[in-house]
Design a protein that fits this description.
Blueprint: E1 2-3, E2 24-27, H1 41-57, H2 67-77, H3 83-91, H4 95-101, H5 107-114, E3 131-134, H6 139-148, E4 157-159, H7 172-182, E5 189-193, H8 200-204, E6 208-212, E7 223-225, H9 228-240
Parallel strand pairs: 1-4, 2-3, 2-5, 3-4, 5-6, 6-7
Length: 242
């Protein structure tokens, strides 16, 4: 698995013709492969540690904000869907500095909590095509999950915001960078996400979009599943051409 640390800015991808078969999978992480960080006890503690860091080192006084309101305010202020990216910008620090102060001290506890997590993503081990992750989550969290569940060798790349200049989905550039890094052909790629707004641009690039969730699917959703196991089983069949 390649942990992406840097990438050159790619040229804009033209919308390709549909492929006859699916040759690759590009997937979100949270609520698709693993749980959201906030759904775990240690994850919630990590989020709280990020909020405390912002209160101590942020550029403005956030003392009147609740943790939830501060989280939302940071995302809006810094125009991102990733709390750790917003915190980095607010505190003027690198992702290495932020991870050392928040994620890294709790990774052992987080890994223990995530070990054996009942995730149907284990089915992806059966895939005969390359699979990469494009996520707004922080790399230490995804790594902890993959290590705890012996899935490091399942994915060719794990692409997170700190590796692509802080860009997050649904930014067009995030998808362009992911395609450049992985070398995937958009017309032969299945893109999976649990937020429909993150499927708009992948579909315009020619990807086959899969939405996992309970909302009525929009016109840019090719396949809709409310159950992850059903979704992964169907995706594997699509890649096998059956």
């Amino acid at each position: 698995m390649v942990r992406t640390t840097a990438a050159n800015r790619p040229k804009r991808v033209e919308i390709p013709r549909p492929a006859a078969a699916h040759a690759s999978i590009l997937s979100d992480f949270s609520d698709v492969i693993g749980p959201k960080l906030k759904y775990t006890k240690t994850g919630a503690e990590i989020i709280s540690s990020i909020i405390r860091l912002v209160r101590d080192r942020g550029t403005q006084d956030f003392s009147a904000f609740s943790e939830k309101d501060l989280n939302e305010a940071l995302l809006k202020k810094h125009d991102t869907d990733a709390l750790h990216i917003a915190a980095m910008r607010e505190c003027g620090m690198s992702h290495e500095e932020l991870f050392d102060l928040t994620y890294n001290p709790m990774l052992n506890a987080l890994g223990s909590e995530l070990s054996g997590w009942k995730a149907h993503a284990g089915l992806l081990r059966k895939s005969e095509v390359p699979i990469a992750i494009l996520s707004n989550s922080a790399l230490p969290y995804i790594d902890a999950f993959l290590k705890a569940n012996h899935m490091l060798d399942v994915f060719t790349h794990v692409i997170t915001p700190e590796a692509i200049d802080g860009m997050t989905k649904p930014s067009e550039e995030a998808y362009l960078r992911a395609i450049s890094i992985t070398g995937f052909d958009p017309s032969g790629t299945i893109f999976i996400d649990n937020r429909m707004k993150n499927l708009v641009y992948p579909r315009s690039m020619g990807m086959t979009t899969v939405y996992i969730g309970n909302d009525p699917p929009a016109e840019y959703v090719c396949h809709h599943f409310s159950n992850r196991r059903e979704a992964f089983e169907a995706i594997l069949r699509m890649c096998a051409g059956t």
